[in-house]
Amino acid sequence: MTDLNQTFSALSDKTRRAIVTRLAEGEAPLSDLAEPFDMSLTAVSKHVRVLSDAGLVRVSKRGRTRYCELEAAPMKEASAWLETYRRFWESQFESRSRYLGENP
């Protein structure tokens, strides 16, 4: 559950979600990731570090440039966990619809 907690914690911030969304398109240099945000490169680096610590991003250095790449496996685990609750809520809604349909 610790990994799942780290995943949800890392994704709880809108800047980090935006970084993940961008990395879903492919690898990017850290400077490119920072471009759309009104914050310093250092601040964006901290967000990337949180994502990296959660296992969502892999950072590699080539020359003087740091490249970031999405590691989607932790999100698959989070998705599987959420799927259980989606099925639960769908069954609750179906039960309620049947009840309301039978008792107008």
Short description:
This protein has 104 residues and is an alpha+beta fold. The protein has helices at residues 2-11, 14-23, 30-34, 41-53, 73-102; strands at residues 28-29, 57-62, 65-70.
CATH architecture: Orthogonal Bundle
Specify Rg, calculated over alpha carbons.
Answer: 19 Å
Q: Output the strand order for the largest sheet.
A: 1-3-2
Mean pLDDT: 89
State the fourth-level CATH superfamily.
Winged helix-like DNA-binding domain superfamily/Winged helix DNA-binding domain
Q: Sheet bearing the most strands, described?
A: 3 strands, antiparallel
How many beta strands in the DSSP annotation?
A: 3
For the termini, the CA-CA separation is: 43 Å
> What's the helix-strand series?
HHEHHEEH
- In helices, the fraction of residues equals 55-70%
Please give a handful of descriptors for the protein shown.
104 residues, alpha+beta, Arc Repressor Mutant, subunit A, three-stranded antiparallel beta sheet, 13% strand
